[in-house]
Amino acid sequence: QKEPEGGRKEQLSVKKLRVVLFALCSSTEQAAEHFRSPPRRIQRWLRRFQALRDPAPPEGKYLSLEAEEKLAEWVLTQREQQLPVNEETLFQKATKIGRSLEGGFKISYEWAVRFMLRHHLSTHTRRGVSHPLPKEIQGNAGAFIEFVQRQIHAQELPPSMIAAVDEISLFLDLEILGSDDRKENALQTVGNGEPWCDLVLTVLADGSVLPALLLSRGRLPSPAAVPDSVLLESKEGGYGDDEIMELWAARVWRKHTECQRGSKGMLVLDCHRTHLSEEVLAVLSAAGTLPAVIPAGCSSRIQPLDVCIKRSVKSFLQKKWKERARELADSGCDAAALLQLLLGWLGEALEILRDSPDLVRRSFLVASVLPGPDGAAASPRRNGDVQEELIASLEEQLKLGKSRESPGKFPKNDDPAADPEILHRLFEGESETESFYGFEEADLELMEI
Predict the structure, then answer these.
(1) Cα distance between residue 121 and residue 69, in whole Å
(2) What is the DSSP pairing of strand 187-188 with strand 162-172?
(3) Pairing of β 197-204 and β 212-217
(4) For a surface tag, which of 2, 51, 162, 366 has the fewest beta carbons within 10 Å of its beta carbon?
(5) Would the pTM count as exceeding 0.85?
(6) What is d(CA 128, CA 133) in angstroms, rounded to the nearest whole number?
(7) Are strands 212-217 and 162-172 parallel, antiparallel or unpaired?
(8) Is the pLDDT of residue 179 over 80?
(9) Which of 60, 68, 112 lies closest to 90 in space, CA to CA?
(10) In 10 A of CB 29, how many CB atoms?
């Protein structure tokens, strides 16, 4: 059925779709900073697109469902490795997949936003476990869950010996730190280069949190300032993947298993940077620990640390950084002093996590690593409800507000004549609710259309 002409006027402009795509790939906050647009406005555009979008794209112009699933798998595996998923990388990959199709492939911002929403790939989702994965990797995830639960039951593994381990890499952009603008963006959790620090987190199915291992490049601060919950390793050239896991196995896992009087165990970990060298396998074998390697692309659904803990820890570290970034850069802070601050923030986050054993335990249930209390798996919807509850609970404890929009974040220009873009928006119909002082947003919602 042909859409009425009036409806077409309600479609978002290319400019707005581009902002929405940025928000879906990264976050509303990052899109707000990048495009100098308040988060509420971006969220409103997204809601409008969701309300207006067609159930399916026109025939013949876009990727097939099978091709889209391949692209969705790519997005998930990129994110697992903390590699960038943005407009550029998404369009490049989509074009590469689309080249193999007869008749070519039409790429557009509308298609890209639709694709991200259709495959539940927004970074905002708090109910990821309730959505199925792309077909092929959904099967892999199911086989993994069946294997893990069977081993836990057959070997009678105690919850204190069922662990999830994962890495968070932190990237420090010294160029941004030394520039005049946006120093808040110097610390990132996505990047292509060598990380500034690698953080290895380990949680247990009984709700315990083992010491975090922080691996840094460069000089160590004084050992006295390292929190009890963190083990620090540092060397000038940094560490390779094998070295990271070998240090973790020796310093964290071996120490833990020595206290467990020979119980068998299981270690849930992803398949990307956790290369299991002979040394690591020897430590796991000596400790009677079976490595359970999560299939590529499945971590967001079946890695207990991914369900709510890692995203909240990353947000907390970035929030702390943003609060201090400008004064740190202005004071010419060196790497050792920055590392000292990071250690303090980590100590805070881990203390809160250690005080939340029920949240850690429930992360294993929501990720389906453990069967439900009655032996049956909860429904995807129920798991989604619990995931949303866990994320909200941890964010509240870490004091992460839903919207961190602050006055002064977006520079106000009192003289419209000084900025032709403001005049253009006012007179070309692109002006938004917030431009009209004294009116409530709801009163002017229709003015956007």
Answers:
(1) 11
(2) antiparallel
(3) antiparallel
(4) 2
(5) no
(6) 9
(7) unpaired
(8) no
(9) 112
(10) 19
CA–CA separation, 318 and 339 (whole Å): 14
The pair of three-digit structure tokens given for residue 7, joined into one six-digit string: 């409806």
Q: Is pLDDT above 80 for 204?
A: yes
The secondary structure of the chain, three-state, reads CCCCHHHHCCCCCHHHHHHHHHHHHCCHHHHHHHHCCCHHHHHHHHHHHHHHCCCCCCCCCCCCHHHHHHHHHHHHHHHHCCCCCCHHHHHHHHHHHHCCCCCCCCCCHHHHHHHHHHCCCCCCCCCHHHCCCCHHHHHHHHHHHHHHHHHHHHCCCCHHHEEEEEEEEEEECHHHHHCCCCHHHCEECCCCCCCCEEEEEEEECCCCECCEEEEEECCCCCHHHCCCCEEEEEECCCCCHHHHHHHHHHHHHHHHHHCCCCCCEEEEEECCCCCCCHHHHHHHHHCCEEEEEECCCCHHHHCHHHHHHHHHHHHHHHHHHHHHHHHHHHCCCCHHHHHHHHHHHHHHHHHHHHCCHHHHHHHHHHCCCCCCCCCCCCCHHHHHHHHHHHHHHHHHHCCCCCCCCCCCCCCCCCCHHHCHHHHHHHHCCCCCHHHCCCCCCHHHHHHHC
Region of residue 316 (phi > 0: left; psi between -120 and 50: alpha; otherwise: beta): alpha
Q: Is the pLDDT of residue 439 over 80?
A: no
Distance CA 126, CA 77 (A): 18
For the segment 121-142, the average pLDDT, to the nearest whole number, is: 93
* pLDDT value of residue 151: 95
Largest CA distance in the chain: 75
Mean pLDDT confidence for 277-292: 88
Would you say residue 21 has pLDDT above 90? yes
Return all residues near 55 (Cβ < 8 A) that are at least 6 apart: none
Q: Which domains does the chain have, with CATH numbers?
A: 14-124 (no CATH), 135-398 (3.30.420)
Q: Determine if residue 27 is left, alpha or beta; phi over 0 gives left, psi from -120 to 50 gives alpha, anything else beta.
A: beta
